[in-house]
Design goal:
- It is a single chain.
- The chain is of the alpha+beta class.
- The protein has a domain at 9-139 and 187-274 and 326-347: Beta-Lactamase.
- 21% of the residues lie in helices and 23% in strands.
- The protein is built from 8 helices and 12 strands.
- The protein has helices spanning 28-33, 37-40, 54-66, 112-120, 216-219, 230-246, 285-290, 294-307; strands spanning 9-15, 22-25, 72-79, 87-97, 100-107, 123-126, 191-196, 205-208, 259-266, 326-337, 340-347, 352-353.
- Strands 2-1-5-4-3-6 form a 6-stranded mixed β-sheet. Strands 7, 8, 9, 10, 11 and 12 form a 6-stranded antiparallel β-sheet that branches.
- The chain is globular.
- The N and C termini lie far apart (56 Å).
- The model is unreliable at 143-167 and 280-324 (pLDDT under 50).
- Pfam families: PAS_3.
Length: 354
C-alpha cells in the first residue's frame, strides 16, 4: 500500500450542459486531484477527462440526466493538475437533483471498499479498459455482452496470417466514436441535496441545493435533525452513524463508503431537536485528516462491525403522523465522504398539514 496516495473523496456538483461545468466542489479535491476549488468552479468538468474516454463520458452524462438516474458510479480517468501524475483512475458517483448532477470523486482502489461502493450503487459503468476489475453485477442482471457471432474459422492450413500487426485486407477499421452534442436539458425529478457536517453529532446543514423541500435560508447552519420528525429521530440518527462508519478508509480517515437508503418524515418548517441531546464536542476536519484519535477509531470500528452489512430501511412512516405542523414523507439516499455526509431527498407523498 502506498501511503502517499490520497484516500479521500470530494463532493462535486456540475450542471446539465454538455460540458458539465463545475458549480460546486469541496476542499478535498485539492488532495485528490491537485486543484483548488477556485481553479475549477465554472470550468468544463469534461475537459479533465481522458481524451480516449471523452465521447463515452459525454454520452454517459447525457444518459444519466435523460434517464433521471440516482446513486450510480462510473470508473474513468481524470487529469491531475500535476502533469507528472497524468490521468488518475477515479470512481465518480452521481445523482440527478432536479437541474444539477450531485455526486463525488474518489481514487479508484481495488479491494473491499470498492466492492462495497459498487454493491450499494444502483448502477456501475466502467469506461477505462484497464478498470474492468471494478465491474460489479448483481444476480439476475442481464449479460453486458451481446450475442457472439459465429467465428469465421478457416479449415485450411495454408491461409495467410496477419503479419506485423497490420490490418487484414477487407476488414474495416473501427470508426471513432462520435462526440455527442446537445442543447441544455430540462429539469428532472424534484430532488434536493444536502451536505451535512460529518464531524458533529448534530450534523449541521452546510449546503442545500434548492428550495423544493426545505428553504435554504431556513436550514443553513441548523441541525439536520431539526427537520426530522421526532418519531423518526432515533432511526435516522442510527442511519447516519452507519454511513459515517462506512465512510472511513483503511487509515481510519473520513472517506467514501457506498450508499444507504431510507424513508422518513421530513418537517419543512423544522423544530428544536437539541433539547434532549448531549452537547456537541468540538472537532476539526484537519485533525481528523491528520490522524484519528483512539476514541474516533474505536467508535468507527465498532459501528462498522455492527452495521457494515446492513442495508438501510425503515417502516417508521407507517401509521398516523404525530408531529405537529407540515410534514412530508421522503425517500433518502445517504453517502459519506471526506468533507461531509451527502443526503439526497425526494418526496414520496404530498405535504400533510396536521
Amino acid at each position: 500500500m502506498d501511503f502517499n496516495t490520497p484516500r479521500v473523496s470530494c463532493i462535486a456538483i456540475v450542471d446539465f450542459s454538455e460540458d458539465a461545468r463545475w458549480l460546486f466542489v469541496t476542499e478535498s479535491v485539492t488532495e485528490l486531484l491537485g486543484y483548488e476549488p477556485r481553479d475549477v468552479i465554472g470550468q468544463p468538468a469534461l475537459e479533465m477527462v481522458h481524451p480516449d474516454e471523452f465521447p463515452a463520458v459525454r454520452k454517459l452524462h447525457y444518459d444519466t440526466i435523460r434517464q433521471d438516474k440516482a446513486a450510480v458510479i462510473a470508473y474513468l480517468r481524470i487529469k491531475h493538475k500535476d502533469p507528472f501524475k497524468g490521468y488518475i483512475l477515479c470512481a465518480v458517483s452521481r445523482t440527478v437533483v432536479h437541474n444539477v448532477l450531485v455526486g463525488s470523486i474518489s481514487l479508484a482502489i481495488p479491494g473491499p471498499k470498492a466492492f462495497q461502493n459498487a454493491s450499494t450503487a444502483q448502477e456501475v459503468v466502467v469506461l477505462t479498459p484497464s478498470a474492468k476489475d471494478f465491474e460489479f453485477r448483481r444476480w439476475g442482471d442481464p449479460s453486458p455482452m451481446p450475442p457472439s457471432p459465429i467465428p469465421n474459422i478457416s479449415i485450411f492450413d495454408d491461409e495467410p496470417e496477419d503479419e506485423g500487426g497490420k490490418q487484414n485486407p477487407g476488414v474495416p477499421t473501427p470508426a471513432p466514436q462520435p462526440i455527442l452534442s446537445y442543447k441544455p436539458l430540462p429539469s428532472q425529478s424534484f430532488r434536493s441535496a444536502l451536505i451535512l457536517d460529518r464531524f458533529s453529532i448534530h450534523c449541521p446543514i452546510q449546503y442545500c441545493s434548492n428550495d423544493h423541500l426545505l428553504s435554504t435560508t431556513t436550514v443553513m447552519g441548523r441541525s439536520f435533525f431539526d427537520f426530522v420528525a421526532p418519531r423518526c429521530d432515533a432511526i435516522v440518527r442510527s442511519w447516519i452513524d452507519v454511513i459515517k462508519a462506512w465512510g472511513v478508509n483503511e487509515r481510519g480517515q473520513p472517506s467514501e463508503g457506498g450508499f444507504g437508503y431510507g424513508k422518513f418524515i421530513l418537517l419543512p418548517k423544522g423544530r428544536d431537536s437539541r433539547n434532549d441531546r448531549i452537547p456537541d464536542a468540538p472537532s476539526s476536519r484537519r485533525r481528523e485528516m491528520a490522524g484519528p484519535t483512539k476514541s474516533h477509531a474505536a467508535r468507527s470500528q465498532a459501528l462498522a462491525g455492527s452495521s457494515m452489512r446492513s442495508r438501510l430501511y425503515s417502516s417508521v412512516v407507517s401509521g398516523g403522523v404525530t408531529s405537529p405542523g407540515e410534514e412530508v414523507v421522503v425517500d433518502a439516499i445517504f453517502s459519506g465522504h471526506s468533507d461531509g455526509v451527502l443526503v439526497i431527498l425526494r418526496a414520496t407523498s404530498p405535504r400533510i398539514h396536521t
